[in-house]
């Protein structure tokens, strides 16, 4: 669905965390498919998908089944967040003030910002390695800087340019990965391609969780890329275009990683396996993946910067951040990540995956609270003005019900966790499978719904004067 603003929308985005007024709304809902499909054809999901057979020792068939189940389940949550964008017209993280209060939302915003800075730093490392793989004379540190600069330029230009690049990337990367699959499957270099590994329940559950958490990790910023669409875009249309694009693109990349490592000798690094398995077209595949990681990484920088702006604006409430503010903060984040990535250890990506698993433990209850509040409690109707007030307006500085449900949602996950910091007793009993996210969702969702409704009933009685004498 397009509007008259579509053709007149400036290439360089002028908004940051503020409400996008109707006259600035533009774009087509199908752009969400290309954004999330093209953005997920990238090295990091390929490396992550390979873990099902590398680390959890599944065979090809059971690895693919686990990948599909995880993405199809996790993608539902991710797409439900995306559907909030056109209705609200504001970024996802600042919208959290309506659930947690203006100050209560700070912890979640900070966690999201740290996670996306981690994503950005990890991806520029992959960009550096990919560039070095294509051109040996380019050292990895130089490749890291080049990758960061490319992503930085895209992120600073902003929303519309990100969508344009991913429309192109969907066709180029989609065709590229299909050709890559065809080459690998006709040039398998191992005798145990179909027999290496086997079904094991802990490995299968762990792979499902890995795929589901990949989708959930997008939740804190997915609606940032739908908020410019016209408010009358149907919720179902936003949901399905996002869901199909993300689930399909991610699944293809995850399966591609699994296929590449099974088609090559045991013990190879995933991207080395991709290069070897794709043979004559290997250099071309690396070039495509390099361009992909640079383009997709702009989303991580963009999301991180919006989170940081939200943090600062909470206290500097008179500040009206502009495109210039977004550019300055983007450059600061870019320089800090380059410094960290260039000086990082060889196992930087592994450390990053460990960090994400820890952070997701505290993001899962947020996702449950946000979705229940939007779809079941407020039904999409919020006071946007209050969200930007220093005292939270009608939402207050803190929402005790949300914070209580959030804290309990974290605590109940502990026995089911499997992170570098802690392995819960239940997870240890089932050979390390991490089911904390399932428990977090199942407990937090009904708990917050009950607490919020109980609070709403109290407020209605208070307004009608029934409790006035007891105050």
UniProtKB/TrEMBL annotation:
Keyword field contains Membrane: yes
Tree of life domain: Bacteria
Gene Ontology CC terms: plasma membrane
Transmembrane feature ranges: 33-53, 60-80, 100-126, 138-162, 168-186, 198-222, 242-264, 327-349, 355-377, 403-423, 435-452
CDD domains on file: SLC-NCS1sbd_CobB-like (cd11484)
Signal peptide: none
Name assigned to this protein: Cytosine permease
Family statement drawn from the similarity comment of this UniProt entry: Belongs to the purine-cytosine permease (2.A.39) family.
Subcellular location: Membrane
Main location: membrane
Keyword Transport carried by entry: yes
InterPro entries linked: Pur-cyt_permease (IPR001248), Pur-cyt_permease_Fcy2/21/22 (IPR026030)
Keywords of the record: Membrane, Transmembrane, Transmembrane helix, Transport
GO MF assignments: transmembrane transporter activity
Source species of the chain: Pseudomonas fluorescens
Bilayer topology annotation: Multi-pass membrane protein
